[in-house]
Amino acid sequence: MTSTSSADDLARTRGSLHRAAEHLLSATLKRATGQIALLPGVAGVRTPELPDGRVVSLDRDEVVVTGAGPVRRARLTTLAETAEAVGLEPGFPWTTHPPGTAYDPHAALQVDPVAATALAEWFVLGDDALTAFAATDLADEEPTRAVVYPEHFDLGLTAGAVNYGFSPGDESIPTPYAYVGPHSPPEPDPFWNAAFGAARTWDELTTPALALDFLRAGRALLGR
Which of 28, 44, 99, 149 is the most buried if burial means most Cβ atoms within 10 Å? Predict the structure, then answer.
């Protein structure tokens, strides 16, 4: 799975979607419930259903609010403009730990629709792989639910002292990637190619089946 957008477009889009996820979606969720973890959606990420019945989603380059009335939809332009258009209060309400992205309500959100679509599809692929992995391989290890924590903006779960997940890319690995991250250093093996464990990019994992094979390989090497 790849995007036809440039690396710069992908990075700008990822950063803008991260800001929107944190300062619009998770901000709304925290004000309503005290929780912050998002879920994978059909075209990006979304909140769980809020107490008033709303669900706030990132739909590629838009924010969409469904439930509790007519559907509201707005392009991602700035945090302030988009929030006003769909009736949200922008800005992550933190107390002890600051958000992972800076809150600038009037800074432009630079979202390339092609890159946004590719990143949304990467989260869908990751959710498919993690769902199958949890059901078929991790049932006896009490895996956590696969969620998107807004400060990191990756989709992951934990089972048996190992993190498994799918990132849209970051400063250390700019290309979207899947990872296996054991909490303790593993035995030396070429499989472990990252400081945190193992990573494979979306160029290598183009289907849920290939991604599932990668997750299983890491688990097997750890003796799970």
Answer: 44
